[in-house]
Amino acid sequence: MNAIVTGATKGMGRAIVMELAANNYNITFCARDEKQVQALLDELRKNYPLLQFFGMQADMEASSDVSEFAEFAARSLGHVDVLINNAGLYIPSELMNEDERCLERQMQVNVFAPHFLSKFFAAKMIDHGRGHIINICSIASLEPVTRAGSYSISKTALLGLTKALREELRPAGVKVTAVLPGSTLTDSWSGTSLPSDWFILSEDIAKSIINCLQMSPGANIDEIIIRPLYGKV
Q1: Beta-bridge partner residues of 26
Q2: Which residues of 135-172 are buried (b: 16+ CB within 10 A; e: fewer)?
Q3: pTM
Q4: Per-residue pLDDT averaged across 121-133, rounded?
Q5: Which residues contact 10 (CB under 8 A, 6 or more apart)?
Q6: DSSP class of residue 119?
């Protein structure tokens, strides 16, 4: 099986890549930092010598990088079974006090890049009569966060995109799933004094995705909502 993951070198993306590799997926991935891309490639190739891994430095905030990564992934893997749009941009800011490009930047990474990649690879999945697109949304897609207004707008739009794709691709046998995590213990929370059990772990997200991918061919999980058991963050 062949998978694509964006934003793959840290946090949820890295956990997803590791879980996919452990389940025998060949993977093409991208991230913004070239050194981190190479380090992850080296680690994967050392630990899973029988699988194929390809990495590219690409910033989902640059539309040219998005299209170049799509072409790179298509060349590297050939047929794509799974696309996971994980890359995200989070800029904490209230709507009335944010920078003028705050919404634009987050829409590019959180909506426009997944929109392009989903359409690009969905066309190929339709030809094969199967495939699975998974978009990493957020609890903020359902419950806007005032301290991250434009982020909430962008993640709400991503959930809308996911629902539209699901209905359009369903007749072609292509599955589409939204994953909506609550606060997850990644670098975004670095330095927090809150207890770790107030957060979801990145590995929780990765395991939920693998479970989703292992469902029978006729079953589609529309949405996965994961919230912290304790705390309200």
Answers
A1: 2
A2: bbbbbbbeeeeeebbbbbbbbbbbbebbeebbeebeee
A3: 0.93
A4: 96
A5: 31, 36, 186, 187
A6: H
